[in-house]
Write a structure and sequence with these properties.
heterodimer, A: MetI-like fold, globular, B: four-stranded antiparallel beta sheet
Chain lengths: 268, 252
Amino acid sequence: MLLSTSIVLGSLLALFAVVILKGAFALSLSMITETPKAGYYLGGGGGILNAIVGSLYLASGATALAFVISIPIALFLNEYAGRSRFASLTRLSLDILWGIPSIVYGAFAFTIMLYLGARASLFWGIITVTLFVFPIMTRAMDEVIATVPLRLKEGSYALGSTRLETALKVVTRQALPGILTAILLAFGRAIGDAASVLFTAGYTDSIPRSLFEPVATLPLAIFFQLSTPTPEVQERAYASGIILLIIVSIASLASRISTRRLMKYVVK
Amino acid sequence: MIQARITINKLNVLFEGHHALKDISVDIPEKKITVVIGPSGCGKTTLLKSLNRLIDLTEGAEISGQVIVDGVDVYDARVDVTDIRKRMGLIAQTPSPLPMSIYDNIAYGPRIHGAKDGSALDQTVENCLQIVALWDEVKGRLGEPASKLSVGQQQRLCMARTIAVKPEILLCDEPTSALDPISARNVELLLKMLKKDYTIVFVTHILSQARRLADYVIFLYLGELVEHGPAEKFFAEPTDARTKAYLEGAFG
């Protein structure tokens, strides 16, 4: 008990400590309010607002798109497919997709982009990230929806509701806290991944004004800053890490709070 | 002579080879309480679920025979199953409120059948809660989650929710088994009151409860219909040896 807590909490604190100790001094207001100025990567002024906004655009877009794909599949698997072969084949495919490293998705999307003659852009970044987070989201939702008790569904059916009404109004409602967790899990993976967006979303010092412009992301900002020879810029990489940690923590906290509120109606 | 509301004709149910109901043929009288008795595992719940086709949800169930309500076989391919279930409300053994507020639990049924929000729906919710004598206990907190109610209150809520879709027949699957004696008595009194408006089929394995409630009795044993008849006759002069043994408490 004590050991498991200390291992988990210990690694969390150690990670926070290293990132904060190395990055805190480089953290400044201009870091989060300005885009990079000329010579930024050589120690010049400016910030990484481009990557912050870019990451939020990309992760939100991909999470929203993945949600649109995941919720019907997860409901279908549980409320319509039953124990059919389709259901187990779908689950098996999702599990395999889940296990594939994100760089492979990046390479896959890049191949398609080359074929279509498309350039790296926010749009393709969202598509790629959606591809690799939707299996995670779907399976997470699937697991939660599977725990909705049969008697609850029977209660709904007995009142003369259709499958769709039961799925949307009762099952989804009961599973809502878990669904929210699944969304957050996907969002966390989406905002933290560098490999899949390297070729597909590109990188730029400005904030994109349309879906078809390249976009910067925080993980890549960290990567580029860390790989410069200038110590000050390397410190900024850790500062960017702090910003990423803060975003993920806020999302996690927000979902915690809303989960607690949603739990109110859940039937035990 | 009784007036039949439901006519069951050669009903057979198989669960992956297990013969759960064998050739059941019986009439269920209108606006009476018909109690289905028998020991556990004799097919009582299966019989109830076959009436409103909730059994369709059980994977691997094979059903043959007819259940005729108002001249229509509920297993006819042209029948709308949601309509069947709306007309035959089922009250389950353990109350399972829906994951929403007290108000929404009652309003759920009317809403899926097209009711719009407004004072008419408010009135329906109040009426239904009045009927099950829950209104006074919850009127100030209709927005609270239904799961916060006690089990006895939840069961009355489930009854109110069933009544809200205006069924004609109430199917009750041991609805008092999870309740304390006082709540159970309230539910029984409620059903006795409701039988002037509804045809009620009540499943129980408690003989004393059957004696208190029944106008008509159906005795199932190992998936077979052993004996059925008006309550006075059934309890006073059972004909089958198995019925006699059961009534004397030899098994079950």
